[in-house]
Amino acid sequence: SILMERRLFLYNFRNLRKAKGRRETYLCYVVKRRDSATSCSLDFGYLRNQMGCHVEVLFLRYIAAWDLDPGRCYRITWFTSWSPCYDCAQHIANFLRSYPNLTLRIFMARLYFCEDRKAEPEGLRRLHKAGAQIAIMTFKDFFYCWNTFVENREQTFKGWEGLHENSVHLARKLRRILLPLYEVDDLRDAFKILGL
Q1: For residue 119, is it within any domain?
Q2: What is the domain range of residue 80?
Q3: 72 is a domain residue
Q4: Distance in angstroms (rounded) separating the CA atoms of residues 107 and 50
Q5: Is 151 annotated as catalytic?
Q6: Which of 56, 100, 123, 168 has its CA at a distance of 20 to 30 angstroms from the CA of residue 90?
Q7: How many domains in the chain?
Q8: Residue in 24, 56, 151, 161 annotated catalytic
Q9: Any bridge partners for residue 33, and if so which?
Q10: What are 125-150's pLDDT values in tens digits?
Q11: Closest CA to 123 of 112, 109, 136
Q12: Considering the entire predicted model, what is its pTM?
């Protein structure tokens, strides 16, 4: 099936603040071609990590094999269970530089941080600088994924407890990561002056 099982989606995409035991990354994708004012869907589906290869790299290999027409514009939308690690963010940024006719939007259920807690934020900043639009998934995004990528047997998506609060918390965290460093320093100085 090209659709994900309900239990896999609900387990892997749950936006918990501490998601112990969730080691795999799932990536749901939609590829569209822009033709003037309209767009045409070319493909959709989902992938997961395979034998030591991260899902982001698998997708980049998959799309590179398409031999995209450089004269046309393409938009790819990802919904991922984890944000990319530093190395994957670098691969994605390089890929985007190689394909200026392609835009990428990434909606993430959770933020991934490895032992070196500085690497992943730097990777996300580089990815953002390379033109990727990155955001945390909201109820609307989970609802869309449920109806597009999940074998839901026509059951309505019901959010879990804490979905909205965790989305807001993670979105704030991502916003702090993406703030230009000089703005972060300015904020720290302002808080010091205010005694906060």
Answers
A1: yes
A2: 6-194
A3: yes
A4: 21
A5: no
A6: 168
A7: 1
A8: 56
A9: 40, 74
A10: 999 999 999 999 999 999 999 999 99
A11: 112
A12: 0.87
Query: Is 41 a domain residue?
Result: yes
**Residue-by-residue DSSP string for the chain:** --SEEHHHHHHHS---SS-TT----EEEEEEEEEETTEEEEEEEEEEE-BTTB-HHHHHHHHHHTT---TTSEEEEEEEESSPPPHHHHHHHHHHHHH-TTEEEEEEESS----SSTTHHHHHHHHHHHTT-EEEE--HHHHHHHHHHHEE-TTPPP-PPTTHHHHHHHHHHHHHHHHS-HHHHHHHHHHHHHHT-
Q: Are strands 26-35 and 38-48 parallel, antiparallel or unpaired?
A: antiparallel
What pLDDT, in 10s, does the model give residues 141-192?
Answer: 999 999 999 999 889 999 999 999 999 999 999 999 998 755 555 656 666 7
| pLDDT tens string 98-122 | 999 999 999 999 998 765 567 788 8
